[in-house]
């Protein structure tokens, strides 16, 4: 029997488990506590009871049943809701984690398991020297994407030990703020802009960083591809439903790793989640550019994004050029000095132009002039149960609209039709070899999409009209400063596609395995010699590029693909009896027919008034201008992922070069967190 004094003390027993590495020391302790004891006091009592001399500053309580951390040490046990049946683990907040990077290399480092994933990714990126961490996140591979590999080799274990880059000596392990490593917020160049290798002086400045020169090269340089046999073992999506599986495992940025079931030494994928790559600069972003290039390369090799045969050969040529250039690293080093001189001259030239108010070759037009295009183009309208109707008209592009007339003389009157391109889908329909330069326009209308094709006569005409259409779809006119750069980007891409009919290199004399640079579909279609010859033809147009230039060109070509930046999810729209695919991009949502892959409707973020989630039924509801509203449930992933995608893209659209690199984390969580 207990005495009356014991009964009135209101103390109760709380079982605590300590995660420590000391042998012959007990790990479970039963402490007598009261409800008004604060969490910090509980820590102190536990440490005094253990009587082990070590640094406990990184330790905190993890509540197993509630799946939450008790980080507010001033809160009492009553306020936290802790009672006698609670199982509390006293464990380090920073634990080992294996990360598979976009270049398929695995790094092992200590990461905070108690902070929100958004902050954890920021710390990881500082260690790896990747700027703009807000563009990346952590992805947990689903079981479906691993099945194929397990069937191929049941005895294999991942990751292979020798492939792991161990960064466990990172300052983050102690719970202190991360040393920037090679990450620099100053405008001091830390990479060679030609070869992408770290500047020797940079390594000296940050010699205490775990990211040594050798480790940095592993992250900033590309290495030869895997064999076709290894490629065949990897998961390759065949349908839109398969592609939806790739995006199901994104972690919640507003919760910690432990809260999402991630355990110590688990493996996650570090990937670019948001396809808006802000301020890419070779002088500071060698690792970021290389990892972005690698993510694009693997997406193309594994056919996660569709591209034509012509485009696949261009991608293969750039990859092959990378590998051959890497074997001539001494040549890259020799060119560094010359490039530095060129940079100084270019900078002085740019400064001179700026001070003079512009170059003489670019005469400023009257600012009141409204830019327009006027040309003879062919209009193609698909018709059901009949052939396409193709007819030539006189087209005028003004502001964000296209008007067409019977001929040039009738342009002063009313147009046959006026097409407003704001919010439309613009898809290139190009085959350079066949001299086909088409623009496919999917214009939103009340009952779906109005499909229109424009056919241009040549590359120059196509580049001008395509650039105008792309800007108009975003609500911008040709007066926008990005119009001319967009034209040049399109012309540059067409030039890459315009492969030389005669290869100057002899395929026999080139030590290249073409099967390593194209997807399996093309290795089955062509023999090795045929692929080598065709890759070399495409290679002629990029042979003068530096390594970093070639990577940036590869990324640019990837961005030009129609499917670029689309993340797919299987959803069921309210009122619909069948499943559809929802494509989420940086500026729009697209409803896609799951069976045919054809877009049904597009909704622009710029027209969005508000969105919210009904967490009880897991339904996302969005309101747009003109009284348009949609609602859907997500079937292939948690609806929180789509909610975070929308909020994340809106958050990223607020960035500007005038800002420093400090992010408004509170705004990010306000837009993406939700209230579950």
Fill in the keyword field for this structure.
alpha+beta; Ubiquitin-like (UB roll); 676 residues; 32% helix; PH-domain like; disordered N terminus; seven-stranded antiparallel beta sheet
Walk me through what this model shows.
The chain is an alpha+beta fold and 676 residues long. Among the domains are: 11-92, Ubiquitin-like (UB roll); 371-478, Pleckstrin-homology domain (PH domain)/Phosphotyrosine-binding domain (PTB) (PH-domain like, Roll); 567-672, Roll (PH-domain like), CATH 2.30.29.30. It contains 19 helices and 24 strands. The strands form four sheets. The chain has a seven-stranded antiparallel beta sheet with strand order 14-13-12-11-17-16-15, covered by helices on one side. A seven-stranded antiparallel beta sheet has the order 21-20-19-18-24-23-22. Helix 10 packs across helix 17, helix 13 (459-473) crosses helix 14 (483-497) and helix 18 packs antiparallel against helix 19. Keywords: Cell adhesion, Cell junction, Cell projection. It comes from Pachyramphus minor. Residues 378-474 form the PH domain. This is FERM1 protein. Belongs to the kindlin family.
């Amino acid at each position: 029997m207990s005495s009356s004094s014991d009964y009135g003390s209101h103390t109760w027993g709380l079982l605590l488990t300590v995660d420590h590495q000391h042998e012959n020391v007990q790990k479970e302790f039963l402490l007598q506590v009261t409800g008004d004891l604060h969490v910090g006091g509980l820590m102190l009592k536990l440490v005094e009871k253990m009587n082990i001399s070590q640094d406990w500053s990184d330790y905190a309580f993890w509540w197993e049943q509630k799946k939450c951390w008790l980080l507010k040490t001033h809160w009492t046990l009553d306020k936290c809701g802790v009672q006698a049946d609670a199982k509390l683990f006293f464990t380090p907040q920073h634990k080992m984690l294996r990360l598979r990077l976009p270049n398929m290399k695995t790094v092992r480092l200590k990461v905070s398991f108690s902070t929100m994933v958004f902050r954890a990714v920021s710390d990881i990126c500082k260690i790896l020297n990747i700027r703009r961490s807000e563009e990346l996140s952590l992805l947990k591979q689903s079981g479906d994407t691993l099945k194929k590999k397990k069937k191929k080799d049941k005895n294999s274990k991942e990751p292979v030990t020798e492939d792991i880059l161990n960064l466990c000596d990172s300052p983050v392990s102690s719970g202190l703020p991360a040393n920037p490593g090679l990450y620099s917020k100053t405008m001091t160049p830390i990479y060679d802009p030609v070869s992408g290798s770290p500047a020797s002086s940079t390594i000296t400045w940050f010699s205490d960083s775990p990211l040594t020169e050798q480790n940095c090269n592993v992250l900033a340089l590309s290495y030869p591809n895997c064999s076709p046999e290894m490629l065949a073992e990897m998961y390759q999506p065949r349908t839109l439903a398969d592609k939806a599986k790739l995006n199901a495992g994104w972690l919640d940025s507003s919760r910690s790793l432990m809260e999402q079931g991630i355990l110590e030494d688990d493996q996650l994928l570090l990937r670019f989640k948001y396809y808006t790559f802000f301020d890419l600069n070779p002088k500071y972003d060698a690792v970021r550019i290389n990892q972005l290039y690698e993510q694009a390369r693997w997406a193309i090799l594994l056919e996660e994004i569709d591209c034509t045969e012509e485009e696949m050969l261009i991608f293969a040529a750039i990859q092959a050029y990378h590998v051959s250039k890497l074997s001539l690293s001494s040549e890259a080093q020799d060119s560094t000095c010359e490039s530095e001189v060129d940079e100084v001259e270019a900078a002085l030239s740019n400064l001179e132009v700026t001070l003079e108010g512009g170059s003489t070759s670019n005469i400023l037009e009257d600012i009141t002039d409204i830019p327009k295009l006027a040309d003879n183009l062919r209009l193609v309208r698909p018709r059901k149960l009949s052939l396409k109707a193709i007819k030539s008209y006189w087209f005028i592009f003004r502001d964000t609209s296209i008007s067409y007339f019977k001929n040039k003389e009738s342009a002063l009157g009313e147009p046959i039709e006026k097409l407003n391109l704001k919010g439309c889908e613009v898809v290139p329909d190009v085959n350079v070899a066949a001299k086909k330069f088409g623009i496919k326009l999917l214009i939103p209308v009340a009952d779906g999409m109005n499909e229109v094709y424009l056919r241009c006569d040549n590359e120059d005409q196509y580049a001008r009209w395509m650039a105008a259409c792309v800007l108009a779809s975003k609500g911008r006119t040709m007066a926008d400063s990005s119009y001319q750069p967009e034209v040049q980007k399109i012309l540059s891409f067409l030039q890459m596609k315009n492969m030389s009919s005669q290869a100057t290199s002899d395929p026999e004399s080139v030590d290249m395995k073409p099967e390593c640079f194209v997807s399996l579909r093309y290795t089955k279609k062509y023999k090795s010699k045929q692929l080598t010859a065709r890759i070399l033809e495409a290679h002629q147009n990029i042979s003068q590029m530096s390594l970093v230039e070639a990577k940036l060109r590869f990324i640019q070509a990837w961005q030009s693909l129609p499917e670029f930046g689309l993340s797919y999810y299987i959803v069921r729209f309210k009122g619909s009896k069948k499943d559809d695919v929802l494509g989420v991009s940086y500026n729009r949502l697209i409803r896609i027919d799951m069976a045919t892959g054809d877009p049904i409707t597009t909704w622009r973020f710029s027209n969005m008034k508000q969105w919210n989630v009904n967490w009880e039924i897991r339904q996302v509801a969005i309101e747009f201008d003109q009284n348009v509203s949609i609602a859907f449930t997500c079937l292939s992933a948690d609806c929180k992922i789509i909610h975070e995608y929308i909020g994340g893209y809106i958050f990223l659209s607020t960035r500007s070069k005038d800002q420093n690199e400090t992010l408004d984390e509170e705004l990010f969580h306000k837009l993406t967190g939700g209230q579950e």
